[in-house]
Design goal:
65% of the residues lie in helices and 9% in strands. The protein contains 9 helices and 4 strands. A 4-stranded antiparallel beta sheet has the order 1-2-3-4, with no helix packed on it. The longest helix has 70 residues, at 100-169. It is elongated.
């Protein structure tokens, strides 16, 4: 006996691990390659990409600087009364000089601006993924409701034929047929309304993401997978990979560098040049050095104070963004846990409603109860089915929302303090 136990313990590491379905592998979600492609084509992402191109150009402009050489040529004619007329000219070649510490600050400002724009582009991708998830889930809810309503119509059509046959045989009253007709008409009207809701949801999804193909049928699966891992793991992951926090931090660093640049401007940049004179037809010539320094201490001091205030405001904005992201991360994780528990309760309620409806159907077939009891049981069953399907979509959406915010799903950019490229999007392909 002891030898058998020892053998089992030795063989345990060799046994294949039990495959656990992760939330990202559910066929209820579209494939990542399609999602990433359609997000790239959205105008929000295109605008963010253009903003990044502008930020890169502005960074190059700051590196080069606006201090360009200027050539001034002044041709003139001098006429002496009672004497000759001479051709003269004067030429100035000058260039403002940027102090070295100002050039370093300009490069720092440009780099921070480019980093902020790049993170804002990644955040536009993230916002697109969240938008697609919301519209996709709305469409799934509407389609699932329409499927259930049509299934209810099929059931009532079957029951209506059976009741009509019983009325012909004298086993049921005429009022039962009228009640069945009313129930069938209500089910058909509900199915038409559900189809309209599904068409509206599909229109919203297709108009926002026209390149995303939709499957013929919604496949939610029997059990929506729960959110794996611990809550603190997801909180830290969402906050550390937040592009919004990263962009706010880069903007704060840019404003701080701009404030230091404005304070440095209190020491004005000099302009150095060479001046050449040719007077009296070349009889008088002169070469001189030109040095000019702007004077405006009060104006430069006011600009430095304004830039300092902008830097303080950017730091406060960074704190607010971090606070909001941390709160949203906790709420998102808590919602994923709660919604999955709600779905589990809805599933239990559905099992009880189906059992009750089956008993009511048998009781009516045996003549032990009336049609009113069957109608009530069917109504409760339908409501339970719709509630369970909506809860299933809610659970899938809530878990996927956490993964999207953590950049574990539908994402191919890095951000926040995470230095690694996390090409994720680990989800299965649905039947299209």
């Amino acid at each position: 006996m002891k030898q058998g136990i020892v053998l089992i313990i030795l063989l345990l590491p060799m046994l294949p691990a039990v495959a656990v379905e992760s939330p990202a592998s559910t066929p209820a979600l579209p494939p990542p390659e399609l999602v990433l492609d359609v997000i790239e084509q959205t105008p929000e992402v295109q605008a963010a990409a253009a903003a990044l191109a502008r930020a890169e150009a502005e960074s190059r402009l700051r590196q080069v600087g606006s201090h360009e050489a200027q050539l001034t040529v002044v041709p003139q004619r001098r006429r002496i009364e009672g004497g000759r007329t001479f051709n003269e000219w004067e030429a100035d070649l000058s260039r403002p000089l940027r102090w070295p510490h100002k050039a370093r600050l300009d490069r720092e400002i440009g780099a921070a601006g480019t980093e902020a724009a790049r993170l804002m582009l990644a955040d536009a991708h993230h916002a697109g993924a969240r938008r697609l998830l919301g519209l996709w889930s709305d469409w799934q809810r509407a389609r699932a409701a329409a499927m259930q309503q049509h299934a209810q119509v099929d059931i009532w059509q079957r029951d209506r034929r059976a009741i009509a046959r019983r009325v012909e045989l004298g086993d049921a009253a005429r009022r039962d047929l009228l009640a069945a007709d009313a129930a069938l008409a209500q089910a058909q009207a509900a199915a038409m309304q559900a189809d309209a809701d599904a068409q509206i949801a599909e229109l919203a999804l297709r108009s926002t993401f026209p390149g995303l193909p939709l499957p013929e049928r919604v496949r939610l699966g029997d059990t929506p997978p729960p959110l794996p891992g611990t809550d603190s793991h997801w909180w830290q992951l969402i906050v550390s990979r937040s592009h919004e926090i990263g962009a706010a931090d880069a903007q704060a660093r840019q404003r701080e560098a701009e404030a230091r640049r404005a304070r440095a401007d209190r020491l004005p940049d000099p302009t150095v040049g060479v001046r050449v004179l040719n007077d009296l037809g070349g009889r008088e010539r002169a070469v001189g050095l030109v040095l000019s320094i702007p004077i405006g201490v009060r104006q430069r001091g006011a600009r430095a104070a304004a830039a300092g205030a902008d830097a303080l405001a950017a730091q406060a904005e960074l704190s607010m963004v971090r606070r909001d992201i941390e709160r949203a991360a906790r709420e998102s994780v808590a919602r994923a846990r709660a919604v999955h528990a709600i779905w589990s309760s809805r599933r239990q309620a559905l099992a009880a409603a189906r059992a009750s409806a089956a008993k009511a159907e048998r009781a009516y077939a045996l003549g032990e109860s009336g049609l009113a009891e069957l109608l009530a049981a069917r109504r409760i069953e339908l409501e339970s089915v719709l509630s369970e399907r909506r809860a299933a979509v809610d659970a899938i959406e809530a878990v996927a929302r956490v993964q999207v915010d953590a950049h574990e799903l539908w994402h191919h950019h890095t951000g926040g303090s995470d230095p690694d490229e996390h090409e994720r999007g680990r989800i299965g392909l649905p039947d299209l």
